[in-house]
Amino acid sequence: MARRLLMPGLMRIQLKLNAPLGVRGLHVKLLLPPSGRHPRWPELDEDGLMIWPQGEDTLHARTYTIRAEQEDGYLVDVDVVQHQHGHVSHWVETAEIGATVGLLGPGGSWYPQKTGDFIMAGDMTALPVMMRIFEVLPNAQFRAWAACPSQADADSYFGPGRVIALCPDNFPSTIADILARQSQPDVAWFAGEFQQAQTVRAVFKNQWGLGKGEQLAVAYWRKR
Questions:
Q1: CATH for 164
Q2: What is d(CA 82, CA 98) in angstroms, rounded to the nearest whole number?
Q3: CA 183, 137, 125, 93 torsion: positive or negative?
Q4: Range of 50's domain?
Q5: In angstroms, rounded to a whole number, what is the distance separating the alpha carbons of residues 76 and 130?
Q6: pLDDT digits (tens, 9 = 90+) for 143-155
Q7: Which of 10, 33, 105, 124 has the most CB within a 10 Å radius?
Q8: pLDDT tens per residue, range 76-135
Q9: Concatenated DSSP letters for the chain?
């Protein structure tokens, strides 16, 4: 494992795999073994069902976006948001280079059939997916907003002028209103906190009348 700080609050880790990911997908599940114990990984039973280790061997599992693959899938980049009580973010900050971690996947994707006028927004947990969408749909006309510490950070991550940066502290209270003031797009996408996703989904469906395959507002986490 290698790591570097991309911007305040966002760390990139590069994982070296024993075997390439192979099947294409958007996300992987990161599996952290209990501290001080030899890891036991999930196994498939004879019926093909996943058997997860229990008790003292229970793994901490969280889903993350594959930001990029290199060396034919043997190196995988994952961007992790840093926050005070995050188990994975603490591991990312403190783990020694070469520490062992498990990956399960990849899987999942959502790319619209239309590629016209595309509105996209997300908090810091959504930045890697937003960049993947930019890459997959190079001919779409994007209007995009993201929670980033500064416009310079947004330009560094996405490329100059692609995304309007919103202060992460203000993003939750402002993004739905910002989107509601926009003209109707062909396609709309949002990812972030659960309540924010519900509010934004109402804009997509009720105000703009976008249907299945034209809009997605997904919750990546839930505020406690």
A1: 3.40.50.80
A2: 20
A3: negative
A4: 2-107
A5: 17
A6: 999 999 999 999 9
A7: 124
A8: 999 999 887 778 888 888 888 888 899 988 888 766 767 789 999 999 999 999 999 999
A9: -EEEEEETTEEEEEEE-SS---S--SEEEEEEPPTTS-----EE-TTS-EE---GGGPPEEEEEE--EEEGGGTEEEEEEE--TT-HHHHHHHHPPTT---EEEEEE-----S--SEEEEEE-GGGHHHHHHHHHH-TTSEEEEEEE-S-HHHHHHHH-TTSSEEE-TTTHHHHHHHHHHTSPP-SEEEEEEEHHHHHHHHHIIIIIS---BTTEEEEEEE---
Residues 97 and 166 both lie in one domain: no
The residue with tokens 């986490």 is: 221
In the chain, the number of structural domains is: 2
Backbone φ, ψ for residue 53 (5° rounding): -60, 145
> What is the structure's pLDDT at 116?
86
